[in-house]
Amino acid sequence: MSSPSAATSVRDALRAAISELDVAGALLYADDACARSLASAVGLPALLSLGALDVHSLASPPPLAGPVRRAVVLCSAPLPQSYAHLRALVLSRGAAFAELDVVTSLTEAEHALAARREAGDAAETVAGDAAGTVAAECERKLGEWLREAASSSAASSPAATG
Questions:
Q1: What is residue 105's three-state secondary structure?
Q2: Which of 39, 63, 83, 145 is least surrounded by Cβ atoms within 10 Å, i.e. has the fewest?
Q3: Tens digit of pLDDT for each residue in 22-40?
């Protein structure tokens, strides 16, 4: 069991790390594990005090209430495990975002190891070059999904249909 001072120091460390994020004017979306950690250690008021517009679940985000140009996604799970939720978010709201940032609490090597395990490779180690490929793959996928969202939005706009 941790002492109150140890819990306070962890909370302070998380608050310091969160305060370094640029969330001003952004909607925040968090996966379930990240949301639980943020709620217990930092709290919604701390995120809002940094300028975040609101915080939503990545798994079940509500409809956009108005124009939002920026979103920040916080992931505690390995990125490959978050792709389905990220894709759904981007395709449903991506055309509204001029900027979309994905922030993760895992290292590149941890993401790469999770991706290898998901692909059926039981290797416990990750080569240095392989670690960078998960971030690049995530960026490639986000770009693809954003283009898909933009073309879908353009195809369904009144100017395009009428």
A1: coil
A2: 63
A3: 889 999 999 988 888 888 7
